[in-house]
Amino acid sequence: MTIIRSRAPLRISFAGGGTDVEPYLSEQGGAVLSTTIDRYAYASLRLREDRQITITSLDYDVIARFNVDDPLIYDGNLDLVKAVIRRLNGANRDQGMDVFLHSDAPPGSGLGSSSTVVVALIGLFKRWKHLPITDYELADLAYQIERQDLGIKGGKQDQYAATFGGFNFIEFSATTTIVNPLRVPRDTINELHHNLLLCFTGKTRLSARIIDTQVEGYVKRKEEVLEAMGNLKAIAMEMKNALLRGELNHLGALLHEAWMSKKKMAAQITDPRIDELYAAAREHGALGGKISGAGGGGYMFFYCPFDKKHQVAQALERLNAKPVDFSFDLRGLQTWEVR
Predict the structure, then answer these.
(1) What confidence tens digit (pLDDT) does each residue in 83-134 have?
(2) Is 158 a catalytic residue?
């Protein structure tokens, strides 16, 4: 019996998040600087000899069972898996299977977990069916499934980050997405990792309402929102240049500028708890930082000079935030078979 497995990395976004959301993406063009980390969405597929489909989510302790002939109805229960099966197994509905899912971070973490799950699932079917699709096509398919088939609000960066992996400057327009892999020197990567502090705020959040508010502000041409989004795009470009030149203290200062702009896009992006954590980190030496993802909760990260990082970590722990060890992932989506 053959088991197919996949894993796709979660990401942290340094700058530009929000400019990858429609309609801003198509009308103005977006740009995001991000990297993937060693936190993953995992998926496994085992073919069955009967006509049963079993989906098991290890995170939610949920098991769903269907017959291959049953309509896969979107009802809020494992819809991401159903949508991938409907897209990629429609012509082979006589094949039963067991699908297992697990993620290192829950939805609402700000690390792009939902989109990463979809990428990992598509990776399973690509490997099983020997689908001749490129990484660009795979990421775009993940975007279509999540945003169009399921109507889940969000941007376009997560699917590409999870598929390609590593440090990328990603540009978005109405017709194309371009992933620019960055050749960051190893010394710079090591120093960035040494000085970057990732922590969990203690709560997750639903990003859809935040994104709705952001989109509304853009559609209504609110001056503050338009200015903030333009600034974020420019900062993403400047931060990319700072990273490539190894100017990490400048990158840290730009993180602060990006956070000041990001907060102007929607009121729900921050709250007193997040503001308290950010102020404490800055007070103890962090040059800059931000919420990862849409905002409202999940993970935050901070750039700290090496001799201040432990002080920042202690200050955050006193506020019941949890520093998390991590490394960078430079490989993106991976699939393999076990016999």
Answers:
(1) 999 999 865 567 899 999 999 987 778 888 999 999 999 999 999 999 999 9
(2) yes
Which positions ≥6 away from 217 have C-beta within 8 Å? 224, 225, 265, 266
Q: Which CATH number fits domain 186-327: 1.10.510.10, 3.30.70.890, 3.40.190.10, 2.60.200.30?
A: 3.30.70.890
Lowest mean pLDDT among 93-107, 240-254, 303-317, 323-337: 93-107
Q: pTM for the full model?
A: 0.94
Check 94, 158, 187, 325 and give the catalytic one: 158
pLDDT band at 310 (very low <50, low <70, confident <90, very high): very high
Q: Which two tokens stand for residue 322?
A: 């949890």
Buried/exposed code over 145-179 (b: 16+ C-beta within 10 A; e: otherwise): bbbebeebbbbbbbbbbbbbbbbbbbbbeeeebeb
Topology adopted by domain 3-183+329-338: Ribosomal Protein S5; domain 2 (3.30.230)
